[in-house]
Amino acid sequence: MTTSGPGMPIAMCLGGLPVSKLRELAGPVLVRTLEILGGEAADDRDSLVRVMTTVAQQRGATALEDPLFRKQLIDSLPLEKARELAERLRVPVSPRIFSDIEHVDFDFDKSAFQELAGFFGLVEPPRAPAGQHLSVEQVSPSFGLFEHQRVAADQVLNAIAAPPGRVVLHMPTGAGKTRTAMHVVCRLLNGGRPKLIVWLAQSSELLEQAVDAFLSAWNALGNRDVTLVRLWGSGQVPDISGISDGLVVGGLAKLHSLNSRDQFALLNLGRKSALVVIDEAHQAIAPTYKTILEKLADAGRESGLLGLTATPGRTWSDLAEDEKLSEFFCHNKVILTVPGYSNPVKYLMDEGYLAEPTFEMLKVPPTTLTTGTKRSVADDDDYSAEVLSAVSQNAERNAAILKKIKEVIARHKRVIVFASSVQNAELFMSLLTATGITAYVITGETPKGQREYAIRQYKTPSPDPIVLCNYGVLTTGFDAPGTSAAIVARPTKSLVLFSQMVGRATRGVKAGGNRTCEIVTVVDPDLPGFGDVAEAFVNWEDVWGTS
């Protein structure tokens, strides 16, 4: 439990450091970016303090995991504050008080680490009260489908009913894959005897999205009480041996762990299942996930397999891999078909289901790559961590992107930025915030409470623009229809990933979004990329035999 007391705000601690120390903490990439942007911010104490305070507050307590940062803060304390911190940490007051505090094993002693974070005011923001999540229980009785979604749902049901019972539902991001699939789930559960359906996904965002959609769908369409099982995360695996009627929403990682401990667990679950659904179906043939799916879908005679995706391929150019995916689903794919339109994406945009995007290419200065890194650019399916790290440290590139972000937020209220690394996302957030622009950062390292707070603020309507800077997350399962602009600053050769990033901004007015949206793709010299979401939709049609 953190001791109450005044402590010392981190801004005051940083304000006592010399400019040279502040520049050292900021790091060469951030300092160089400030220099390129102009002005004297890179040598101005107040500007550096604002930037570093913003970075620390966004990181929360995790900022103190950096030993250098932690030492500088402790060394900056006035003697009376050092004594106060020592008392909190139960460190004897001695002439070596600063050294004694720094030698506390904060990595091992979690209570001491919490005391330290509380002293500097680096705590997670309050989470939304648990009661707010109950709003999902109070839903409209309507869970209807648009005409093109009804046709797709009927086709999926027909495909599942006929041998071999495997099919992919291919719909563009924002066109309602989850909603359409939940109609399939509810119609199967409503028909005949009690049955179990298993819904699988990789990320917590997609799993939460599935649970929310099922609660809404079953409240409107269900004909009896059923069981809903959440099976993901770090908690204990619930006992599902006695469950035979309802929906199991499971994480692929959790089920893989379960299968490793008990080779019969998935077979027993599969025997009771009438349908297995896998979101982001292009992952289905990855060896680990393929084993899970085959155990679940092949365990019972009546089990069907439904894949959901906006990108029914694993790669952009490896047809052999994409053919494997098509074979896994027996070359059965339901695609939106609209009379008079060769590409359904155009129809969805014309009718307001998807926003009409404008694409802009932002050319940035080249990044110097090592010989080994250049070799990986040519050989790898997508850009390696080394390539992404290299471009994220290109200060000239960062400065050009920041200028573009500021241009875009003059036209849009909600903007999402896909950065090229964790540090890159934090850099964009800190520099935007330091200039008075509301910005948040979300990465795989962001504490859960901080992440929930940032998303909640971003989704809350307000007249002021907000920029959400992220890396490695939010490409799937993140639904914020108010987003009207996306800046793709992460280089990728993956058409799947590019389509997912673009899709965060393409919700149309009929889906609570916008009539138009703006997509800015950062173009790095010698790093090929993409530019058109409609072309992406039909990229794999030759593999599936639907062209």
CATH architecture of the largest domain: 3-Layer(aba) Sandwich
Level-1 CATH class name of the largest domain = Alpha Beta
Principal-axis shape equals globular
Rg over CA atoms: 26 Å
Q: Order of strands side by side in the largest beta sheet?
A: 3-4-2-5-6-1-7
What percent strand?
5-15%
Percent helix range: 40-55%
Structural class: alpha/beta
- At the third CATH level, what is the topology name of the largest domain? Rossmann fold
Number of helices: 24
**In angstroms, what separates the terminal alpha carbons?**
63 Å
The residue ranges in which pLDDT falls below 50 over 5 or more consecutive positions are: 134-141, 537-547
The total count of strands amounts to 13
Total domain units: 3
Mean pLDDT: 82
How would you name the CATH homologous superfamily of the largest domain? P-loop containing nucleotide triphosphate hydrolases
Q: Report the sheet with the most strands, covering strand number, pairing sense and barrel closure.
A: 7 strands, parallel
